[in-house]
Amino acid sequence: MSGHSKWHNIKIKKGKVDQQRGKIFSKLAREIIIAAKDGGGDPANNMRLRSAIERAREASMPNDNIQRAVARGAGGGDGAVYEEMTYEGMGPAGVALLVQVATDNKNRTASEVRNILTKAGGAMGASVAWMFEKKGLITLPRTVASEDEVITRAIDAEDIKTTDGEYEITTAPEDFMKVRRALEEAGWKPTLAEITMVPKSSVPVSGKEAQQVLRLMEALEDHDDVQHVYANFDIPDEVLQQVG
Fold first, then answer.
1. In terms of residue numbers, what domain contains 169?
2. What is the reported pLDDT for 24?
């Protein structure tokens, strides 16, 4: 599993999402606004919006908040106009980073993200996007079913791996919702389901550098304008668990 996805999964299991519910709602609302602005306000015809709404519901975001965000994005509501941007950078130990933001002031956000990276011993501006590819990623506990059953259900998946007590299912972005629906129709609830940027290769990181990388991830994800952070680190699970 990619560095960001494994890190994100551990944080969910430890209840960190609940502790930061207000900030999570704000970020989810921005994602919905941008998705509705780009592809229209009908989730049936806008995969990105449909996925964003499902993530919001999974986080227990009130339906009124969701509908207001859809209306704003589709042109039926007032509020800040958000611009979506992706910054490329390097962190400690040569870890590649993609930082996706939604901001109403790109100069301020760029300066603040650069400052976070610099303080952590990293730098913004490196060309690293080629190290990642867009994929759908779904994880299921191995206890839900046998591997053969999962393979049969996830017939449109690109790859299915068994790691650390979970099935890790990778899909093409356009097949993500189809595979997710097939799994959920079987009564299996994913522990993680998202369109993500998967690194083509990973950088092993341990010891002090692992701590530095994870502190950087937390600092970036804590920024109000940062929607997603993708990284290609490979850190031992016991270190992820300790910091998560």
1. 132-199
2. 84
